[in-house]
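stuck on this chain:
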Amino acid sequence: MSIESVWPLGVFASLDAGLGVRWEVIEQLHVPTIQLHAPSPPRCTRQTAAELQAQLSRMNVTLTCVFGGFHDESYADIPTVARTVGLVPRATRAERVAGMKVIADFAAWLACDAVGLHLGVVPHRKSDECEYDAVVSVTRELCDHVAEHGQRIHLETGQETADELLEFIGAVERDNLFINFDPANMILYGTGEPIEALEKVGRFVRSVHCKDATWSDQPTKTWGREVPLGEGAVGMRRYLQTLKDLGYRGPLTIEREIPEQADRQLREIGQATRLLTDLSAELWGQAG
C-alpha cells in the first residue's frame, strides 16, 4: 500500500479564496484532495455543485469534506469567537442550523459524505445547562439531517478541551458525529496539548488538519500564533506517528490561514507538502 493511498495530501480550499487557498493553488501544488469551505448558502445550488464537480474531475482532485461557515462570524480574538462563531450564539442559531442543512445538501450533490464546522464555544454544562442542552439539541437536528444523505458531521477541534469535546459527543448521542482534528487550534485557543488531546479523542477522528502554532503567553485569554508547518509547538513527526498509531488512514489536509498573502501562502504550503511527504515516508518505511 502506497503512502499516497494511506495519507493523501490535501489543502483547505475556497471557491472565493475566503478561508482557503485560491483555486489555482490546488493545480499549482498538484494535491490529490481538498476540503472545501462552502460558499454562502444562496450559492449552494445544484448548478454550482455540478460545475464544481466537473472542475474537480478535470483536475483529478477528490473532495473529502465540505466546511460550513457564516458571514458574520469573527475570529478577531477569543472573546469575539465566543460571541459570534458557530451554532452556539443564540440570536443566529436557528438561521445557521438552516444554513448548515443547505450546505449539507450541497455536499450531497457533490457526492461528499462529510460536513465540517466549528460548533463554537459551547457553554459549560454545569454553569449553563439550559444553553448546553440547546446546543446539544441543534447538533442532533443537524446530525439527523445529514444522516438522510448518509453523511457525517465533523466538529473541528480547538474551542474546547478534549474532555469537554468527548462529553459533548456523548451527550448528542448520534453515531454520525465525529471530529476533524486540528492540532494547532488546541495551541491557538490554549485548550490543551495537542498530542495528548489527539490520543484522548482519536477514536472519533475522521479527518485532520496539518497546521502549526506557538502558544500565547496567556493561554485561553489571548491567541497563540499560527506559523509555518514544522516551526511551531505541535511537533509534526509526533503528530503523524500518533495518527498512525491510532489507525488514522485518511487525507492530511494542510491549512495555512494567510489568504491575504497569496505568494507566501503558496510557498509555505509547498514547503508543508514536502515536510509531510518526507515524514510520511520515514514513518511508513519503518517496520510495523
Observations:
- The two ends are 13 Å apart (CA to CA).
- The first strand starts at residue 9 and ends at 14.
- The chain has one domain: 3-284.
- Residues 262-284 form the longest helix (23 residues).
